[in-house]
Amino acid sequence: MTTASPSGARAARHCHNVLNPFHSTHYFSPDLGKELAAVGITDRSAAYFAARAAAMGAVGAGTVTATFYNFKHELVARHVPAVWRTASPETVLAARARAVDATLRRLLGDEILASPEMAEAAGLALRATEACTRHARPLYAAHADLPVPEEPHLAYWHAATLLREHRGDGHLAALLAADLDPVEALVSHVATGKGMAPKWLLATRGWTPEEFDAAADRLRERKVLDAAGELTELGVALRRDLEAETDRLDREPYAHLGESGVARLTELATGFIGTALAAGAFPADLIGKAA
Fold it and tell me: When you count CB atoms within 10 A of the terminal residue's CB, does the N or C end of the chain come out lower?
């Protein structure tokens, strides 16, 4: 078993933090809506559930709710498994690949996509995935069964997806161990100032403002939030320990890549996502505490 140093864990988390949004660009891209509408999926929530769950096959609502964690089951069940009658998982995966390609070409430009740096980043990220593990990681394991695309920018996106879902699966285990239910996890993350803004959570996760308020009340009873909805000292410690446990569960890919490899991948990934952000990859009000 590899034991990561505190500095190694911070470096690994920093690397993940610039890989994760590269994967997520397509969720906010008009190209995904366009490609999925072309195969009959026009609802935004249905499109998200289908695009992210398709690697698992034609699964039911229970599987999606379990693996996505913080979406209301009733919202999921409104679209799954019905979405698979509109388009098969294979059709959705093909549409997603076209959308990712179009999105990255629009955000980064063909010159960056064809650059030696993109090929280098793909190689480094794929090397990191060699140490990922499938057990108890359903979303990662499903995506790990997909073929690696030949084009470097799509191979890099694929590797970023594997690393994102590998960490994400571990994070869900940490949330469960921390006794945070789906809404409490969202509310406490918002309180850090680093989570998705309530406006976006309420529009996408299916929970009502009343359910958010009730979760905040439960967190106040646990002394995680104060009367103003800010994290208490206990709440800061809870979120810190939660991320540290997620780091521990996700250490192997970055330990396998090595210190210099992590540093180089972080450098390359930072440049790519910086260009994408400058091109408007995400809404300006996506992150923060404002409702």
Answer: N
Q: What is the DSSP letter of 28?
A: G
Q: What is the DSSP letter of 39?
A: T
CB 97 within 8 A of CB 169: no
**What is the average per-residue pLDDT within 124-136?**
98
- Give the burial class of 239: count Cβ atoms within 10 A of its Cβ; 0-12 exposed, 13-18 middle, 19 or more buried: buried
Which of 56, 55, 25, 18 minimizes the C-alpha distance to 254?
A: 18
pLDDT above 90 (res 291): no
Residue 237's Cα: distance from chain center in Å? 23
Please state, in angstroms and rounded to a whole number, the distance separating the CA atoms of residues 89 and 80: 12
Render pLDDT for 139-162 as a digit per residue (tens, 0 to 9): 999 999 999 999 999 999 999 999
Contact 32, 103 (CB under 8 A): yes
**Cα–chain center distance at 90:** 21
With tokens 């793909």, the residue in question is 122
Phi, psi (rounded to 5 degrees) for 287: -110, 140
Residues 31 and 51 sit within 8 Å (Cβ to Cβ): no
Would you tell me how many other CB atoms lie within 10 Å of the CB of residue 117?
15
Residue 118 to residue 157: CA distance in whole angstroms: 10
The sign of the CA dihedral 231, 236, 237, 240 is positive
Do 247 and 11 contact (CB within 8 A), yes or no? no
> Is the predicted pLDDT of residue 17 greater than 50, yes or no?
yes
Helix axes 233-249, 182-192, angle to 10 degrees: 110
Average of per-residue pLDDT values in the chain: 96
Name the nearest CA neighbour of 151 among 99, 94, 113, 112. Answer: 113
Residue 48: which of 204, 185, 167 has the closest Cα?
Answer: 204
